[in-house]
Amino acid sequence: MKVFQIGAAGGVGRPLARLLTARGDEATGMHRAPAQAEVIRESGATPVTGDLIHDSVAELAAKLAGYDAVVFTAGAHGTGMELTTAIDGDGLVKAAAAAAEAGVRRFVLVSVFPDAGRDRETSEGFEHYMRVKKDADAHLVRTDLDWVIVRPGTLLDEPGTGLVSADLAIGYGSVPREDVAAFIDAVLHEPALSRVIVELTSGTTPVGEAAARLAGR
Ligand SMILES: NC(=O)c1ccc[n+]([C@@H]2O[C@H](COP(=O)([O-])OP(=O)(O)OC[C@H]3O[C@@H](n4cnc5c(N)ncnc54)[C@H](OP(=O)(O)O)[C@@H]3O)[C@@H](O)[C@H]2O)c1
Predict the structure, then answer these.
(1) Which pLDDT does position 207 carry in this prediction?
(2) Does the Cβ of 151 fall within 6 Å of ligand 1?
(3) Atom number of ligand 1 nearest to Cα 129
(4) How far apart are CA 146 and CA 153, in angstroms?
(5) Phi, psi at residue 197, to the nearest 5°?
(6) Probe residue for ligand 1, chosen from 52, 77, 135 as the CB with the greatest number of ligand atoms within 8 Å
(7) Which of 26, 58, 71, 146 has the most beta carbons within 10 angstroms of its beta carbon?
(8) What phi and psi, each to the nearest 5 degrees, are found at residue 6?
(9) HSE-up of 15 (CA within 13 Å, CB side)?
(10) pLDDT over 70 percentage in the chain
(11) pTM score, two decimals?
(12) In angstroms, rounded to a whole number, what is the distance separating the alpha carbons of residues 87 and 182?
């Protein structure tokens, strides 16, 4: 399988590339800064330059042509409301349009768990982030793409366990980035799992089993 990663140099993107290439898939990782090419190469993917803000839909579509799937894990990462709108919001809209134009139907998006932030005092920026993420999900749901939206709980940098809780609705929790990557890897290899929104936290079910169960196997 040929997978195009948007957000490849990030905390979820890098372990995902490692998993994909370890199982013999081809991963290409889009990056902005020239220095990130090496980071992406180290994760096993092939780097290609690109920017969700500056590239046009046609430019993105040209990069996506010939791939089997797009994985979108890009995000503004708390750098301000304007960038959140441009990357997590408009960037997703552009990427989905580019995938459609390039004929790449499979599209996996990492969004956010709707209960995020409930246990702490919120801020205008966080509320904006949650709204933009929800609007991006709603946009993708309305497309004709073969989408899966993964909504992880709080992301952790600790090593993955390979064990998750994944379902249409679950209680809130946290999850290592490596386990989010492992779940996306499993989703990409469960073609019957399509047009669903999945909530994801750490749990007790092996990732492959969790994805297979959701796919009805
Ligand atoms: N933090 C949490 O607890 C949490 C919880 C649930 C969901 N999420 C979501 O999970 C997703 C993945 O998280 P993560 O930890 O992997 O994020 P991350 O480490 O911040 O990675 C995000 C990636 O997006 C890239 N990016 C930013 N702007 C871009 C642009 N204009 N064009 C192309 N790429 C761009 C970044 O590249 P640069 O290095 O060039 O900036 C980076 O590689 C995010 O969408 C986040 O909102 C986070």
Answers:
(1) 98
(2) no
(3) 47
(4) 23
(5) -105, 125
(6) 77
(7) 71
(8) -105, 115
(9) 19
(10) 100
(11) 0.98
(12) 24
